[in-house]
């Protein structure tokens, strides 16, 4: 390593990302709790379902399917990689939602704000997990670079592992500082999508004649992850990927708001009041 240091602005951006990792889920919880007197249980359930279905169960399947060097083969075919990632995310997360509404939250069907609080928990915990883990890792590595202690991370490494670690150091040194806060911008449409998917699946479970809303949530989830995943594998422009996220989020929110207005019956929320904001 040279005597280069990670810019102070980069560390500030990492700190902002770390703050928002906590602010997003806490802010969502407080908003729905205060504005609609939403129950706490759906929020906790949303957090748990994301952890179990997206991190544990989906992670196990990825390890099985992409193990043995197969991940590189998938990455070499961006469209295939995107389709696979979108399918798995949609399958596990929407199924997790469906099961939660059918079981743990089945006694809350007279309170439609359950869907909102669940979505806040699911999307909020994902935001916390992704932003916090990346930000804290970046900060620790950056401090070690700036204090000249990188050998603590590299002394036991060799070959490909050492090469990868050195690439990480180079990325921290050369990346535009503002990019370290880009994850916050990405989480805004992601959270909106999760709340919207939750609304769709909620009414699919609650009203048997609306069963098609569950596969609709899966299709929309699959589509956004497939497109963005493919673009990411192609190393497409970040602005393009974010634009696609926001476009999908706007479309999905509009669909969810339409469904909500037609179906809500509880907590004093009228048929003309939008709550997915």
Tell me what you see in this structure:
The chain is mainly alpha-helical and 277 residues long. The chain contains ten helices and no strands. The chain has helices spanning 8-36, 41-66, 70-75, 78-102, 113-146, 151-154, 159-174, 182-206, 213-233, 238-263. Helix 2 packs antiparallel against helix 4 (78-102) and helix 5 (113-146) runs antiparallel to helix 8 (182-206). The chain is globular and about 65 Å long. The N and C termini lie far apart (47 Å).
Please give the structural blueprint.
Blueprint: H1 8-36, H2 41-66, H3 70-75, H4 78-102, H5 113-146, H6 151-154, H7 159-174, H8 182-206, H9 213-233, H10 238-263
Helix pairs in contact: 1-5, 2-4, 2-5, 4-8, 4-9, 5-8, 8-9, 8-10, 9-10
């Amino acid at each position: 390593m040279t005597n280069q240091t990670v810019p102070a602005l980069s560390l500030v951006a990492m700190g902002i990302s770390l703050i928002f990792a906590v602010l997003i889920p806490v802010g969502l919880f407080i908003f729905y709790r205060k504005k609609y007197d939403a129950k706490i249980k759906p929020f906790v359930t949303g957090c748990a379902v994301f952890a179990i279905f997206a991190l544990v169960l989906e992670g196990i399947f990825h390890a099985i399917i992409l193990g043995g060097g197969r991940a590189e083969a998938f990455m070499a075919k961006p469209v295939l990689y995107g389709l696979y990632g979108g399918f798995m995310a949609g399958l596990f997360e929407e199924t997790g939602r469906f099961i939660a509404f059918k079981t743990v939250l089945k006694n809350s069907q007279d309170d439609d704000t359950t869907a909102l609080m669940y979505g806040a928990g699911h999307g909020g915990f994902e935001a916390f997990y992704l932003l916090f883990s990346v930000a804290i890792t970046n900060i620790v590595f950056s401090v070690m670079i700036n204090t000249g202690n990188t050998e603590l991370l590299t002394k036991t490494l060799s070959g490909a592992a050492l090469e990868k670690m050195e690439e990480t150091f180079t990325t921290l040194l050369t990346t535009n500082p503002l990019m370290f806060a880009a994850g916050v911008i990405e989480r805004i449409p992601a959270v909106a999508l999760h709340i919207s998917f939750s609304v769709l699946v909620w009414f699919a479970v609650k009203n048997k004649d609306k069963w098609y809303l569950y596969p609709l949530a899966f299709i929309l989830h699959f589509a956004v992850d497939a497109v963005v995943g493919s673009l990411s594998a192609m190393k497409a422009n970040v602005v393009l990927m974010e634009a696609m996220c926001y476009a999908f989020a706007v479309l999905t929110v509009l669909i969810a708001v339409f469904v909500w207005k037609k179906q809500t019956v509880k907590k004093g929320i009228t048929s003309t009041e939008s709550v997915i904001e």
